[in-house]
Specification:
This protein has 2 helices and 14 strands; from the N terminus they run αββββββββββββββα. By secondary structure, it is mainly beta. The strands form 2 sheets. Strands 1, 2, 3, 4, 5, 6, 7, 8, 9, 10, 11 and 14 form a 12-stranded mixed beta sheet that branches.
Length: 208
């Protein structure tokens, strides 16, 4: 993406700035409150590069300081109990869990350390944006942007050109679209939930 000595750039604007609005994940969620628990049924459809379908049954406590969630995947016959994301430092979060696969009759442990820091000269933003369509119906969009900031360099009396510009790069995509149906309206807890997600979604998968 660096400019040539004649001032002509080697790549086009389409290559430097690419925005993909075709989501790779489409998810329909049904939520209901039962005796202090939020019960959710997720129907997840995956587009390219893989064509797949997944169903999940999710249990979470409704308290703002909820520390766990229970996930059952009937197709794969997997059961997981995951902790909430635990802040390790200002920039890192840790999540641990234990699961059991009924097909393999095996217990597994998992852990995940996520960070908001970029790498290899590329910075990344991952976020969820929630739009309330009407009482009890929400749409949530998971989007990602990888970018390299523009850079201008030059010099006199060196082998470098007098003026050189790196135009930077932007690769953005709409990764996930969720339709969330709440019964009754569970969005009184959404403010706390959205805050937690915005802090932990950087460089992470979009998960329930």
């Amino acid at each position: 993406m660096e400019a040539s000595p004649a001032g002509e750039e080697s790549t086009s604007w389409e290559e430097r700035c690419n925005i993909n609005l075709m989501p790779s994940e489409l998810i329909l969620k049904f939520r209901k409150e039962i005796q202090g628990l939020r019960v959710g049924v997720n129907l997840e459809f995956y587009n390219a590069p893989r064509n797949d379908f997944q169903a999940k049954l999710v249990f979470k406590p409704l308290s703002p300081d909820r520390r766990w969630k229970f996930v059952y995947e009937p197709i794969h016959q997997d059961v997981h109990i995951l902790s909430k994301k635990i802040p390790v430092t200002k920039f890192f979060n840790l999540q641990v869990g234990v699961g059991h696969n009924f097909q393999l009759n095996a217990i597994n442990w998992q852990w995940k350390l996520t960070t908001c820091l970029g790498g290899d000269g590329v910075s990344r933003i991952r976020n969820k944006t929630t739009l309330g369509l009407c009482p009890g119906v929400d749409f949530r969009f998971g989007w990602r942007a990888d970018y390299v900031l523009p850079e201008i360099t030059g010099g006199l009396g060196t082998d470098r050109p007098l003026f050189n510009m790196n135009s930077g790069q932007l690769q953005a995509s709409l990764d996930r679209v969720e339709a969330i149906l709440n019964y009754p309206d569970c969005r009184c807890y959404r403010g706390e939930e959205s805050k937690g997600e915005s802090e932990s979604i950087c460089n992470d998968e979009y998960r329930e």
